[in-house]
Amino acid sequence: MTEITKPHDLFFKEVFSRPEVAETFVLNFLPPNVTEHVKPKTFRPSKESFVDERLKEHHSDLLYQVDFKDGKSD
Q1: Average of pLDDT values for 70-74?
Q2: 8 Å CB contact between 66 and 43
Q3: Nearest to 69 by CA among 42, 51, 29
Q4: Residues 26, 35: Cα–Cα separation, whole Å
Q5: Contacts of 25 (CB under 8 A, 6+ apart)
Q6: Does position 59 have pLDDT exceeding 70, yes or no?
Q7: What is the per-residue pLDDT across 11-55, written as a single tens digit (0 to 9) for each?
Q8: What is the pLDDT of residue 55?
Q9: Do residues 38 and 27 touch, judged by C-beta distance below 8 A?
């Protein structure tokens, strides 16, 4: 049987790699002064990474792009 290493990290990546889960989390747990600007149903996974090459073995990021109600995208 294979031992699971870093179970919390694996769980986080598996769950939050689904855009609908990330959106639900953001819209329900971030403060209203942030969420009032987010356009629902626009969460898209981003291919960019901000993790230094030396740290990729130990750390990774999970990024989303989202549209804002004012029409901008970040």
Answers
A1: 73
A2: yes
A3: 42
A4: 7
A5: 16
A6: no
A7: 888 899 999 999 999 999 999 999 999 999 999 988 776 666 665
A8: 57
A9: yes
Write a three-state SS string for the chain.
CCCCCCHHHHHHHHHHCCHHHHHHHHHHHCCHHHHCCECCCCCEECCCCCCCHHHCCCCCCCCEECEECCCCEC
| The residue count for the chain | 74
CA 18, chain centre distance (Å): 9
Q: Is pTM, for the whole model, over 0.85?
A: no
Of 49, 51, 52, 28, nearest to 38 by C-alpha is 28
* Token output for 74: 């970040």
Amino acid symbol at 54: R
